[in-house]
UniProtKB/TrEMBL annotation:
Substrate binds at residues 276, 312, 316, 343, 370. Residues 30-368 form the Orn/DAP/Arg decarboxylase 2 C-terminal domain. It catalyses: meso-2,6-diaminopimelate + H(+) = L-lysine + CO2. The modification N6-(pyridoxal phosphate)lysine is found at residue 60. Homodimer. It comes from the Bacteria. The keyword Amino-acid biosynthesis applies. GO terms for biological process: lysine biosynthetic process via diaminopimelate. This is Diaminopimelate decarboxylase. It is an enzyme of class 4 (lyase). InterPro entries: Ala_racemase/Decarboxylase_C, DAP_deCOOHase_LysA, De-COase2_C, De-COase2_CS, De-COase2_N, De-COase2_pyr-phos_BS, Orn/DAP/Arg_de-COase, PLP-binding_barrel. Residues 36-280 form the Orn/DAP/Arg decarboxylase 2 N-terminal domain.
Amino acid sequence: MSDFHYQQGSLWAEGVSLEQIAEQFGTPTYVYSRAHYERQYQAYADALGDHPGLICYAIKANSNLGILSVLAQLGAGFDIVSAGELERVLMAGGDPAKVVFSGVGKTADEMRRALSVGVHCFNVESESELDRLEAVAAEMGVTAPVSLRVNPDVDANTHPYISTGLKENKFGIAIERARAVYARIADSQSLNAVGVDCHIGSQLTELAPFLDALDRLLVLIDELAEDGTKLKHLDLGGGLGVRYRGEEPPQVSDYLGAVKERLAGRDLELVLEPGRSIAANGGALLTKVEFLKRTEEHNFAIVDAAMNDNLRPALYQAWQDIVAVTPSNGDTESWDIVGPVCETGDFLGKHRPLALEEGQLLAMLSAGAYGFTMSSNYNSRTRAAEVLVDGDKTYLVRARETLADLVRGESTVPAKDDQ
Ligand code: LLP
């Protein structure tokens, strides 16, 4: 049984109908399938097999504590990019020793916290960051485990906003500089080189760029060995794509099969940081049609979810399927599915062939990654609820925000005359 499927004329997540979820929790609501997250994580763990290494779920894709706890229970590692993400991992029961800390702007406080809980390593993105990490580790009297994120300068062939491994991007250290930087690490009392990593982009649908990057990293690893630095692990980042609409991304098993083949005979642990490929197709954004509005140019369906709930269409012109929860037999027309936010860019989908009525429920599919995590309170909209389905059980893993949540920490100021 697929995680989201039609049964009795209506869309279900595992053993619960989305109609029931809308009735119980309201809309808009993100709905997640536990089985999906488990299966996708397990595909990576199985493909890694007995090769030593870690599957570190990139929690920026979906950082809800419910999801993180499901993955922590399976023994997952985590890729984090902030102190907030680190605290989420700890709250969800994740093991800090399986955490890799990525990101270009780590603060000294974030480094301190990560060193004190004992993360697996810091994926260091610049020489200035290395200086800061060395100073923080020295002050704490500890040694910081370091992996340099190198920029292998390969074209991931994806949307420019989510391509990260080119020279022109802000990420990583140029691969030509890497040897000199590892030499600097070798000279430090407070730094220990444990690995090397890269992340060349997201939503990749071909293996070739991953394997190109891997080959470049292996050349570097051999050069470092000549210099006397023996690395324990190689981290290829995340980036494997998913099917939103007809894409045919490689299978996890084919990807890791090809990687492991190249690693054969080497004593190198393999670390991966998948986000989207674990999360995207495990979630749907459930929304209700408020109004139907026909103009000369377009038919607009105004729904109660908006760009603040899912920014991907507005930001990347991303396409995600939108389906009726209970399809009717009415005439299909072409609809632009738009939200209530005051921006022309506020749309979830354009030109969608659907038979719609006011009050009807729609589901935006493939919304389990970079959906809720990129949501905001723009237009003072309270953020959606999140519900995790497990078989025929539902868990409200994030309550819908209230007006009190919306203004928490804000205050008014007295009138001028009262000052
Ligand atoms: N590791 C690092 C260092 C990353 O920067 C990312 C994603 C990942 C791992 C996970 O990549 P994934 O397996 O999910 O492709 N908001 C965009 C995607 C941004 C990806 C940023 N980095 C979107 O909605 O398409």
